[in-house]
Design the sequence.
């Protein structure tokens, strides 16, 4: 009977979690840069959420919990051999595949900057720094982001500061 | 008090500019930041860049919401946990006995190098999972094909041909009416030992079938691996057939051949 109750509440929890599918997929896509991996990542996130539902404290932040599962799943599945990308310290990684976006002085052309150029600029950031920027953009508080990344709020603050400075530098001529 | 009113330095102001430009600072701090900005062109420029970066990301960064197909797949797997009890390992995505094997299959599925993008194959697995997880996957218990086939009459928008009624190796458990992508389907459930196989029969019109690579005793089928399951998809006349199971490759071909040659 206890088992039935647990499974029932687990299902309810994950059903509630379905409301975050769009945001989770968006983040998964920005982390993996790969459509198939992003879908797999979201599916595995929900599978793990269900498996770990008993550990979720009723009333705590479901969104931050889910995103944290997604982050950890991403590291487990795709970053095992590249942990340096998520390690603290520097918030940018030397990535030859993410060239600096070329600026352009013509305002019209500046406005015409295409999304994938920004995405490539984002790829200069470490996974956690990129997550922080994306979640901040979605209106998450610093403490929510900290909960998701498993670090202190002060770390989020400084990480966001450095990551956005790096983005400003790379996208300077496009944002004006 | 004196300390609070002291003018802020650039180093103090810069980390606050993101919040300042969004109006997220308390009144007092905000006033001090803006007092600094009024006197410091360099920090004003950074503040402008902060605003510009927000605008650029908000307006130009591509957004990737989950596809409807993905949402449907996520949704489809949920009822599995509402009806547990009989499954000691009734975890989402863990289909049958042997949680470890299924987890391995899941990982294999996740790490596949060339994920199947064929919608007919993907749908077969999603629908098979639904069959496995449903409380009552079968609406008509099989007393043999003569009992099952008439049950479908009037419940489908096509005439179901003769169905494979099972033999010593594969037993027909029964059937139900389901959906295959956008259309009604006859769902037939077979068992081989502990393994379940789901057969979906549906109108084939409008579907593009995947390239065939397997002979089912006169009928060509596409046999694929998808998320750890074996799927056979083929077309016979106006109807499409999709068979999904955790059977091994030889077994699924044998079952597929018997089904194809009964129709």
Sequence:
């Amino acid at each position: 009977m206890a088992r039935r109750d647990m499974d029932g509440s687990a299902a309810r929890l994950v059903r509630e979690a379905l409301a975050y599918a769009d945001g989770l997929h968006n983040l998964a896509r920005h982390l993996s840069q790969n459509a198939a991996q992003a879908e797999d990542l979201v599916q595995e996130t929900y599978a793990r959420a269900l498996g770990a539902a008993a550990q979720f404290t009723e009333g705590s932040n479901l969104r931050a919990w889910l995103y944290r599962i997604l982050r950890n799943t991403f590291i487990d599945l795709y970053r095992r051999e590249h942990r340096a990308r998520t390690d603290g310290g520097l918030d940018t990684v030397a990535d030859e595949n993410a060239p600096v976006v070329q600026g352009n002085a013509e305002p019209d052309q500046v406005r015409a900057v295409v999304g994938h150029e920004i995405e490539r600029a984002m790829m200069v950031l470490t996974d956690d720094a990129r997550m922080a920027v994306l979640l901040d953009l979605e209106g998450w508080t610093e403490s929510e982001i900290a909960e998701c990344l498993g670090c202190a709020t002060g770390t989020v603050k400084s990480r966001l500061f450095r990551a956005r400075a790096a983005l400003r530098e790379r996208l300077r001529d496009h944002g004006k | 008090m004196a300390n609070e009113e002291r003018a802020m330095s650039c180093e103090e102001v810069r980390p606050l500019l993101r919040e300042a430009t969004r109006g997220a600072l308390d009144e007092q701090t905000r006033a001090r930041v803006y007092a600094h900005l009024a006197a410091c062109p360099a920090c004003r420029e950074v503040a402008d860049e902060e605003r510009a970066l927000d605008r650029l990301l908000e307006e130009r960064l591509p957004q990737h919401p989950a596809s409807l197909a993905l949402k449907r797949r996520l949704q489809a797997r949920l009822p599995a946990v509402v009806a547990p009890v009989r499954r000691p390992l009734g975890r989402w995505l863990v289909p049958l006995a042997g949680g470890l094997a299924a987890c391995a299959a899941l990982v294999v599925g996740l790490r596949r190098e060339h994920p199947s993008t064929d919608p007919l194959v993907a749908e077969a697995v999603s629908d098979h999972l639904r069959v496995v997880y449903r409380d009552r996957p079968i609406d008509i218990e099989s007393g043999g094909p003569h009992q099952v086939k008439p049950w479908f009459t009037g419940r489908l928008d096509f005439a179901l041909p003769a169905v494979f009624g099972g033999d010593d190796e594969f037993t027909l458990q029964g059937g139900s009416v389901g959906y295959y992508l956008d259309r009604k389907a006859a769902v037939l459930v077979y068992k081989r030992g502990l393994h379940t196989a789901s057969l979906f029969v549906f109108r084939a019109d409008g579907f593009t079938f995947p390239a065939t690579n397997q002979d089912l005793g006169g009928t060509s089928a596409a046999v694929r691996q998808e998320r750890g399951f074996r799927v056979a998809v083929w077309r016979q006349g106006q109807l499409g057939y999709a068979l999904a199971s955790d059977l091994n490759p030889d077994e699924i071909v044998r079952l597929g051949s018997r089904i194809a040659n009964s129709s």
Notes: Strands of chain B lie at 140-141, 171-180, 183-192, 195-203, 214-215, 220-226, 229-236, 239-245.
